[in-house]
C-alpha cells in the first residue's frame, strides 16, 4: 500500500472489488502545483466539524447521502461534513429556485420532510432500514414536479444531488473509484481519446460495469 492512501484500503477496492485495481491518485500529487496539492491533500485530513446541521439533521443527511451515493461501508467520503461546511459558510451555488427557500432553509425543510414521511412507519429516516429509506426516496423522485411537503419534488431532488455529488466527486477517494488521475495542470495529457490511457492511468478491470458501455450494447 502506497503512502498516498495512508494505509487505507482504496475506496474502489473496499466497495466490491475495484474497477481500477492498484490505482492511487495521491501518488500523482508530485505532478501538481503547490496550491493544488495543498487543496487536494487537505480533503484527506480530518473532516470539518459539523456546524450547521443539528445532531438530528446530521443523522438524516448522512442516511440520505449514503442512499444517494451508495455508500454502505467504510471508508466513506465525508460528504455530509463537506455539505455542512458549505451551508455553515453560506457557500451556495449563488441561486435558488423560484418558489423554493434558499438552500440553507431548503435543506432543513427537506430533511424534516424525510423524517415526517419515515414516521408513518414508526421511525425517523436515519433509523429506517435501508430498503425503507430507498422506498421513501423513490417516492420523492417519482413525484417529479409535483409538490412534496410544500416544495417541488424535482427541485428538492436537484438540491440533494447537486450538493452530494459536488462533495463526493471533489474527494480523491472518489477519483480512485472512477480512475480519474486528478488535476491535469501543469503536466497535462498527451493521449486524449476514448480508451487511450496515459502511462500513469490504470485500465478499467470491469468495463462491463460502465453504464455508458452497457447503454451502447
Entry keywords:
disordered N terminus, mainly alpha, 2% strand, 9 helices, two-stranded antiparallel sheet, single chain, 217 residues, 44% helix
**Count of extended strands:** 2
Helix content: 40-55%
Question: How would a textbook summarize the main sheet?
Answer: 2 strands, antiparallel
* Averaged pLDDT: 88
Kindly give the count of domains: 2
User: What is the number of helical segments per DSSP (H or I, 4+ residues)?
Assistant: 9
- The SSE string, one letter per element, is HHHHHHEEHHH
Topology, please?
Elements: H1 11-14, H2 34-42, H3 55-69, H4 79-88, H5 103-118, H6 130-142, E1 147-148, E2 151-152, H7 153-168, H8 172-178, H9 211-216
Antiparallel strand pairs: 1-2
Amino acid at each position: 500500500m502506497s503512502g498516498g492512501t495512508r494505509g487505507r484500503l482504496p475506496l474502489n477496492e473496499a466497495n466490491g472489488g475495484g474497477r481500477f485495481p492498484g490505482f492511487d491518485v495521491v501518488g500523482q500529487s508530485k505532478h501538481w502545483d503547490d496550491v493544488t496539492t495543498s487543496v487536494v491533500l487537505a480533503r484527506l485530513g480530518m473532516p470539518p466539524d459539523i456546524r450547521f446541521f443539528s445532531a438530528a439533521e446530521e443523522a438524516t443527511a448522512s442516511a440520505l447521502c449514503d442512499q444517494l451515493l451508495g455508500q454502505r461501508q467504510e471508508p466513506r467520503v465525508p460528504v455530509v461534513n463537506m455539505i455542512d461546511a458549505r451551508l455553515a459558510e453560506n457557500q451556495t451555488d449563488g441561486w435558488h429556485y423560484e418558489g423554493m427557500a434558499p438552500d440553507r432553509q431548503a435543506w432543513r425543510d427537506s430533511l424534516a420532510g424525510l423524517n415526517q414521511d419515515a414516521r408513518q412507519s414508526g421511525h425517523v429516516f436515519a433509523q429506517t432500514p435501508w430498503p425503507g429509506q430507498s422506498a421513501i426516496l423513490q417516492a420523492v423522485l417519482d413525484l417529479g414536479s409535483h409538490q412534496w411537503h410544500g416544495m417541488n419534488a424535482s427541485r428538492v431532488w436537484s438540491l440533494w444531488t447537486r450538493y452530494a455529488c459536488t462533495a463526493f466527486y471533489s474527494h480523491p477517494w472518489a477519483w480512485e473509484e472512477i480512475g480519474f488521475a486528478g488535476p491535469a495542470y501543469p503536466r497535462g495529457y498527451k493521449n486524449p481519446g476514448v480508451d487511450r490511457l496515459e502511462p500513469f492511468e490504470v485500465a478499467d478491470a470491469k468495463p462491463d460495469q460502465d453504464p455508458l458501455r452497457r447503454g451502447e450494447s
